[in-house]
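Entry 14. Ran structure prediction on the chain below.
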Amino acid sequence: MTSLVRAACLTNYREVAQASGLDPVRMLLDANLSPSVLDEPDLMIPVERVGRLLQASATVSGNESFGLCMARSRLLSNLGAVGLLMRDQQSLRDSLKLLMRYQAFLNGALTLSIEENGNTVVIRELLMAGSTHQPTRQRVELALGVMVRLIRQLIGRDWQPRRVCFEHSAPRDLSVHTQLLGRHVEFDFEFNCIVCTRSDLDARNEFADPAMVRYAQQLLDALLKPSDETMLDEVRRTMFLLLPSGRCSIEKVSEHLGVVPRTLQRRLTDKGQSFSSLMNDIRKEQASRYVVEGSRSLREVAQLLGFTAPSSFSRWYQLQFGWSAKESRTRALAAQRAKDAAP
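Output, structure tokens:
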């Protein structure tokens, strides 16, 4: 199933591409996207094509921070009606909860979660890699950059996160990262996240309009009626969120979705799916990214995919891909060296 995202995610693409010495029309066509998508923000387009566009733009231009540069001028209004609803919430906590509620309608490959521990709050952004392997660096940096921008619009433009953390390695030049995200940026972290405080979440919005919220939510709910496909998306997103904890069971997923396991299994069966097949598909997507693209140890990869032992992961990987995870990583490194050595 192809994940979709609003074309508004490409806001400012044309300007950043031109500033980086690229022909935006040519790049869009090469990614199998019509140039007209830049003028149709509400159009839903395939996430994988967006990822291909951003990665190719960064590679061809040599701008390692291409995705992050696109986040510079992002506004709440770029999220459409959802962004306007966020603007009128009572607090940042309420705004983020609303964003999580409607996230599937904005970007089907992105999952948000909020984890609180004392005064520390971690806003995690989990990105599904997709069925075809491609680097996710640019999509991740765009997503976290946009989140920082949105939070500043909600609670103050001088707001600074405690930390912004990325799974991938650091670029050669950190100037764009420190300028947009602040001085505390970390790389090669366990997951992609923004760290702030509980007081940030509970900061009151003096301009909130409860009457507008009620009206706009009714309108949105009428326009975005749940469907079977939305249900499948929600199941996948919840499984994606729970896998690293080792608690991705049908019971836990059902609990998160507010249904009983029997109901969830019946709905999946009606769509020709099963819980185990969906989890296997997600593991394959993530395994391709972590093994081939990342620098994590295979033991860490096994944990992130919810395997209780590295040996179980090794057997599963061999069965799914026809060779071992170690061989996959070796082949990927060899291919990259050959590509780098090519004239």
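The radius of gyration is 20 Å. Will compare against last week's run tomorrow.
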